[in-house]
Amino acid sequence: MTLSRRVTRRRVLRGMMGGTAISVGLPLLDCFLNSNGTALASGEALPIVFGTWFQGLGLSQGFWEPKTTGANYAMSQQLAPLAPFKDKLNIYSGMKLYSDGKPIQPHATGPAVCFLGDVQSSPALASIDSLVADSIGQNTRFRSLEVACHGLPESLSRRSGTVSNPSEPSPIAFYQRIFGPDFTDPNAAEFKPSPTVMVRKSVLSSIKDHRLSFANDLGASDKARLDEYFTSLRELESQLNLQLQKPAPLAACSVPRKAEAEGAMGSVIEEALVNHKLFAGLLAHAAACGQTRVFNLMLSTAQSNFRRTGSSDTFHVLTHEEGTDNQLGYQPKTYWFQSQTAEAFAFMLSAFDGIREGDGTLLDRSLIYFSTDTGYAKMHTVENIPLITAGRAAGRMKTGLHIAATGEPVTRLGLTIQQAVGMQVGRWGTGGNETSKPFTEVLA
Fold first, then answer.
1. Is the CB of residue 293 less than 8 Å from the CB of residue 48?
2. Helix residue spans in 82-180 (DSSP H)
3. Alpha carbon 441 to its chain's center
4. Could you tell me if 206 and 13 are in contact, meaning their C-beta atoms sit under 8 angstroms apart?
5. What is the mean pLDDT of residues 36-56?
């Protein structure tokens, strides 16, 4: 396919907003791909996108694991929301971490081994996403992007034991960061454009003329795909704008005293799930238009303080104190929170799978790593930790499998991920968690 000089992979649409330059990247349109939609028009392989997705306090043992292994398994009860993506993900059960005789630290040891391969979080080690970013994230605007849905700038991503990558807890600020200005007045002591103005005026409106001119160079299918892409982004802008509207007055409403208002940020799960939907859409757009190839999303911290609206029972306290229903076989309230995890992850996958690229989708060239901190939350065990990978990593991963790896270290999956994104690494992990055995059955 011959590309017009005006239509290149690195093309961005530009506009002005209040005298400030605005740029919006483009998704992978057909005109950027070869005739089969399997590589860039230049012959280069499609760039892989890697992301981590974390939620604390695991899933309910016996209810998330498929009953059979291999390709013909039935989706489990608790992971039912993931059924539409069964052919694009792998489930790994039975895995654990090895403490090497060191004390297990609830909520900390599990993520340390899953992200660092080390039971003690050695200061010398970078997290798996940083290792991947060193390999595939150097030539993008953002080396990696980190977001947190629970209202705090916490993250499991780190460059080293002393340098962490903080998360952005505000969807509006995150929107500003991705679609904000690429020019800053060098004479200004400090410049920070208002995200409120950006959302209300709309980035898409600011690039309207450039977008219409650009579309004239495209074929019918690319015009339709670009319209679909920007319609999705416009919907995100509308949702963000709603958060900026002044609510109508309510006579019965009163401002609580300070002591009543000092609850933890982001503790209401319904609010966190709204943030998650916004972040999922923004991350998908950022990845689709080449702004980053690595991201990290944290639904909650490992020691989740989520509670339902109108309830004082937190997810974490329930895992300890709620009794197991003899008929159901699980803790009902705890199970509900864990099921929200599955539904949220399914929404994340739908955001990536909803962006079409050639004959596939953004999810097809992505590899998203779902992890948590514990196997059986009631006892905070580190056996049978639920782990999932989603996406085909641009053809480097076989999918649709349930792999039962009883007693195997979770680091086997971390090693597999690094090899799948093209890193030349033969082993990963420390001490009893060190491994040189990737899951070759999922590597294409």
1. yes
2. 109-116, 128-136, 171-179
3. 25
4. no
5. 89
